[in-house]
Each structure stands twice: as C-alpha cells, then as structure tokens.
C-alpha cells in the first residue's frame, strides 16, 4: 500500500490511507488489533476505481499514534467521535461506511452523527442489544480471550492471528497485531463494563439506512445464529450474506466474493 497521511483529531495524530478521487466514497474501519492494511485487497480492486477510498487507523493501531489517555480513549464512543470528526475534516460526503469487526461496531455507533452516510456494510460485527449479552454473540473459543489480553507473547500473537484468518494470512495478521498498542486490548473490555456501547440494533433499525451484513461461514469468533435472528428493516437482500471459505476476516480470505458484494451494494446505494 502507498504512504499514509496524517490528520490531527482531538489531539491525536490519526493515520489514514486514501486512494482515487470522486464524488462517492467508501470509508473502511478495521478490526481489533488490526489496521487499514487489512483492506489491501479492496484498495487494489479495479472495480473500486471510481470511488474515493479511505482507510482510517484507530489510535494505537497501524500508523496512528497510541492514545494520549488510554483509559478515556480506548472505547467505542471515542473511536466514534474520532471517525465523525475525521470524516468532517476530510470533507467526505455521499459515502458508505464499511466496518470489519470492531470497525463495524464503531460504524454503527456513528450512525446518528453522519449526515452524508448513505449506507453501511458490516461484517464480523453483530449489532448488539442492551443489556449486553456477550455469551449470545461470541462462540466459546479458547483463544477468544486474546482479543482482550494486554501483553501477548509470540505464540499468543500467532494464535490470535489464526483465530481471525486462515493460516496463509497469519504473517500478514501478526504484523498488524504486533503494531497495535497492548493498552487497547486492556481498556476496551473495561469500557464495555462501563456500558460504553449503544444499542446498535436500535441504531440500525432507527436510521432507515440500508445495511449489508456479511458473515464468514467458518468464523470462530461470532455466532452466525445470533445475527440471523435479528430483524433489521432495511437489511440488504433481506438476509445476512454468508461468505464461503472465509472466517473472521473475509475481506482477505474471500476477497473476490467480498469485493463483488461491496461493489454491488455501493452501486445500488450510491
């Protein structure tokens, strides 16, 4: 990928990757301990040449600086505010938010605050209801705790990468995980116990915006049955799209199918 740019938002130096120009945009938001580098197959896809593409690195991830105040900044609400302000500063209008895992939850949190957003595509990011019931959302995989463990040794980094994607992508995933701030994994669960999460199902249902939801058939983290039982009025194709031969990171593992679905959604909505 090409060089990143930097923008100052709420005192934080935020890195973002930008490619192409145009009147319509796709804004990509990445997952826990990853970065916008996880969207390399989307930035290189010829079908997106007519769209302005942006990938934002959250604080403590990728090329962005660690949070100034981890206890107050490593949570969904701060990441939401940071995305909203970044979109405003970069003058992004008429766009789709595309959010993976953590990024999907941040995208849903942004919905009430983004006038120019025309639709949402989320994957590996089941819309939560309150009170929060993590047991209904997450599968009981023994490696799941690594998403919320501060310090990871090399064996644990590899286990976390394998939890997120197929073996062939482990070198790519471990590079991003090593680059992430350990404090993020420590403070995110603390923020959830402080109820720093919205009723995302209600936000989606109330927004009226079209939303596309995808799920890797081999995802070891998220329960597909949880997402299937949600009734979302503006759900694209009226179903959750199941991506074959993919787990938690289908934008890498099933890039061809993923890109076609995202392109179809963008052409229809924008």
Structural account:
- The protein is of the alpha/beta class and 270 residues long.
- It is built from twelve helices and eight strands.
- Strands 1-2-4-3-5-6-7-8 form an eight-stranded mixed sheet.
- Strand 1 and strand 2 form a beta hairpin.
- The longest helix is centred in the last third of the chain and has 15 residues.
- The radius of gyration is 17 Å and the shape is globular.
- It starts with a strand and ends with a helix.
- The model has no long low-confidence stretch (mean pLDDT 96).
Quick rundown:
This protein has 270 residues and is of the alpha/beta class.
Instruction: Tell me about the largest β-sheet.
Output: 8 strands, mixed
Rg, Cα atoms, Å: 17 Å
Shape: globular
Spatial arrangement of strands, main beta sheet = 1-2-4-3-5-6-7-8
How do the helices and strands follow one another from N- to C-terminus?
EEEHEHHEHEHHHHHEHEHH
Helicity range of the residues?
A: 25-40%
In terms of DSSP E residues, the strand content is 15-25%
Low-confidence stretches: none
Q: In whole angstroms, how far apart are the ends?
A: 26 Å
The secondary-structure class comes to alpha/beta
């Amino acid at each position: 990928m090409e060089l990143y740019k930097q923008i100052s938002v709420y005192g934080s130096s935020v890195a973002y990757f930008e490619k192409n120009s145009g009147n319509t945009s796709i804004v990509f938001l990445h997952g826990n301990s990853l970065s916008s580098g996880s969207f390399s197959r989307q930035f290189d896809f010829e079908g997106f040449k007519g769209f302005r593409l942006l990938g934002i690195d959250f604080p403590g991830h990728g090329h962005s600086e660690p949070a100034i105040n981890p206890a107050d900044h490593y949570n969904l609400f701060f990441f939401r505010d940071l995305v909203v302000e970044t979109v405003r500063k970069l003058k992004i209008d008429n766009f789709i938010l595309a959010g993976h895992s953590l990024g999907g939850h941040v995208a849903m949190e942004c919905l009430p605050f983004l006038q120019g957003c025309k639709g949402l595509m989320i994957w590996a990011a089941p819309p939560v209801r309150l009170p929060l019931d993590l047991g209904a959302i997450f599968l009981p995989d023994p490696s799941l705790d690594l998403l919320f463990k501060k310090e990871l040794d090399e064996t644990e980094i590899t286990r976390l990468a394998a939890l997120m994607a197929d073996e062939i992508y482990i070198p790519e995933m471990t590079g991003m995980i090593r680059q992430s701030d350990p404090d993020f994994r420590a403070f995110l669960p603390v923020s959830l116990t402080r109820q720093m999460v919205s009723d995302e199902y209600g936000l989606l249902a109330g927004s009226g915006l079209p939303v596309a939801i995808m799920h890797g058939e081999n995802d070891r983290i998220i329960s597909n049955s949880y997402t299937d039982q949600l009734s979302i009025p503006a759900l694209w194709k009226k179903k959750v799209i199941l991506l074959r031969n993919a787990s938690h990171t289908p934008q890498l593992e099933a890039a061809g199918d993923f890109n076609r679905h995202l392109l179809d959604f963008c052409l229809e909505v924008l």
